[in-house]
Amino acid sequence: MVTPVRVVIAVCLVAPFVAMLWVGSYAKTDPTFIGVPFFYWYQMAWVLISTALTMTAYRLWQREQRARAAAQGGAAE
């Protein structure tokens, strides 16, 4: 069943793949950040962003599963 929460979870998990596979968007040297070319710091930034998005997706999934279990438990009584 597709729910809005599951759509958000999917977007959180797919966004890093799209960002990294679209090489043309970051295959350049400028702007530099602390002397590091854009190509490198962009990828390193996505490591942190991907971690945050994966954590968000996991927390949303847990919350949905708890709500589903509570709804099924309440319906059984």
UniProtKB/TrEMBL annotation:
Record field: transmembrane: 7-27, 39-58
Residue stretches in coiled coil: none
Signal peptide positions (record): none
Record-linked Pfam families: DUF3311
Entry keyword annotation includes Nucleus: no
Top-level division of the source organism's lineage: Bacteria
Keywords annotated in UniProt: Membrane, Transmembrane, Transmembrane helix
InterPro entries membership: DUF3311 (IPR021741)
Keyword tRNA processing found: no
Protein name: DUF3311 domain-containing protein
Lineage: Bacteria, Bacillati, Actinomycetota, Actinomycetes, Kitasatosporales
